[in-house]
Amino acid sequence: MNVSVLILTYNEEASLPRCLDSVSWSDDIVVFDSCSTDRTVEIAKARGVRVVNRKFDNYSNQRNAAFKNVSYKHPWVLMLDADEIPTGELLAEIQEKLAHKQSADVAMFRVRRKDMFMGRWLKHSSGYPTWFPRLLRPGKVIVSRAVNEEYIADGLEGILNGHLEHYPFNKGISYWFDRHNRYSTMEAEIMYRARIEPLRWSGLWCRDPVKRRRAQKEFAYKIPCRPMIMFIALYFIRRGFLDGYPGYVFCTLRATYERMIDFKINEAQRRGRGLPI
Which of 99, 210, 218, 224 is 20 to 30 A from 47, comparing alpha carbons? Predict the structure, then answer.
């Protein structure tokens, strides 16, 4: 398959081997590393793949640098996090799509993920389906927003019906908290600035999907009791209870993450008013 592969990593020695195994069909694999301190780079080099290091500042800058500063052998790049595995169904679909000329005007394809936890797919509690840009043309896509990134394509967008399998708990629940502590800090900074500005209601119905999602997120963070609403939405309305105990744990973790964001937004507001923390 004439597709390059980009894998973004930071201390991924537990996840990287399986991810590399899943893309061994590619003759152009790049591990774009954020200066890992474990065996990530050693594992990648032992597999004979290219390794590029860049000190991490935020997620959008890291992805943009990976597209802008790296030369790829093929015009299309499958971008993965180390805890993502493309299924055989997805790979067959990619090969079929790119063989057709109608993909010539497409800048990126979005893919759904199956979030895995405790040995099962969280079909209900994870909020599935969410579409993530994963097959892209370098030079045709710009990534914005420091966390929970937004992708702006210079061209058409397509969708792929195959899935990625996502293993966000490969490094344990403690690491999940460490990672989401960073996410929540970055998200709170963005949302604090958004709260200062008046909500543009027209954005909620904007035809541009990027602007529409941004307005929806800004609106959601103005809703009181949002963490509780998130739990109710995922566990009861989206029927997360059908995912059993893993679904309950995941919904609780998601609500905790939203609460962390709210606490940090409140902290930023107090700092802005000169109040003690």
Answer: 99
Sequence-separated (6 or more) residues with CB below 8 Å from residue 103: 97, 158
Compute φ and ψ for 157, nearest 5 degrees: -110, 145
Q: In the predicted model, is pLDDT for residue 246 greater than 80?
A: yes
List every span in the chain annotated with CATH 3.90.550.10: 4-166
Coil, helix or strand at residue 159:
strand
Chain centroid to Cα 180, Å, comes to: 12
pLDDT over 70 (residue 199) = no
Name the residue type at position 251.
C
Burial class (CB in 10 A: 0-12, 13-18, 19+), 261: buried
Please name the fold of domain 4-166: Spore Coat Polysaccharide Biosynthesis Protein SpsA; Chain A (3.90.550)
